[in-house]
Design brief:
Blueprint (H helix, E strand, L loop, with lengths): L1 H18 L3 H20 L3 H8 L4 H29 L3 H19 L4 H29 L5 H29 L4 H17 L26 H14 L6 H9 L4 H29 L1 H21 L6 H26 L5 H29 L4 H18 L12
Helix pairs in contact: 2-7, 2-8, 4-6, 4-14, 5-6, 5-8, 6-14, 7-11, 7-13, 9-14, 9-15, 10-11, 11-12, 11-13, 12-13, 12-15, 14-15
Length: 406
Amino acid sequence: MAGGALTKPLAGRLRRSVAGLPRNVVLLGVTSFFADVSTEMIYPIVPIFLTTTLGAPVAAVGLIEGVAESTASLMKLVSGWLSDRLGRRLPLVISGYGLAAAGKLVLAAAYAWPVVLLARFIDRFGKGMRGSPRDALIADSTPAALRGRAFGLHRSMDTAGAVVGPLLGLALVALLDERLRLVFLIAAVPGFLSIASLLPVKDRRAAEGAPQPVPLTLRGLDKRLLLFFGAALIFSLGNSSDIFLILRAKDLGLSTTAAVLAYVVFNFVYMSAALPAGILSDRVGRRRVYVVGLVVFAAVYAGLALADDAAYVWPLFAVYGLYIALTEGVGRAFVVDLAPVERRASLLGLHGMLTGFAALFASAIAGVLWDVVGVWAPFALGATGAALAAVLLVGLSLRPALRVRA
């Protein structure tokens, strides 16, 4: 009885949080959930398929992922600019999710590693195509006072897919006796469900008249937005791939299974905290929440640099989930707050491209530091970058109060 009494108010608060948001936002969250289930079902097993089933060298794995993520980063800017130019979001969003689902089918038919490269290219091309227009559509559909909540809900539902997907994928690998091509085919099902959930979504910014030119320039932008871009870039140059967290967990003594489960813990915390973090940013301001997230990241990376026992991995991974909840959705809402309405998707895309390419560079540097300097070095670099970015963003408090754009 006591437990029921406690959960009823909590459920009521959650319903009120979701119910206060437009239907578009909730539907786009459902779409991202299905899409992430589809992607994360196969992400951990693609390297195994490449090296074991197809006999590809490890270098090919790195090449494929590098090309895939670079494509996604570049397409964020291209699709954002195109969305602003056309004055429409939904066609690009639907096309992006459709390409990602089709990529799973190509992967299932792969007979050599270059075909896997093609499949991953199609998948990540679709991811890049949909990202900026989707985030702009969330902003277009939401009152300014609820933007943090909207992006928080979207991040929470997206990450729920990242929790369910790997567990479902590993279960299917066991149940299907490691017939990986069949797992890839099944993974396409939630991908196509993500497209179906888009059908009731309404484009909130239909084009009026001829398409308008959208300048690809930083001239005339709010200086606080430029400062945020600079801080995000500095931070991203030390924010290497999460695969280094798993490698560090194994280095400290966790088994492969335990390391993956620790990663699931991180995603679970992220999923649980993203919506509250977004709501908090609506109340106290984006900058404050984002800076706290950077400080949390710096603390976690410093802890991973100094850790000498596997017992530290679990709390550090859990707190790491809190960092990303405080920055991912909040950062997108921050960009929207300061961007001109007619350039909303373009500037979201620019932010995604800058941080994406910087993260690729960070991962390359992290690998060198790991081998040449020591396993602690990539985490020391990440902690330093996050601390510098936080200091830079604190400078925003010296400027006039943030006026949110409707």
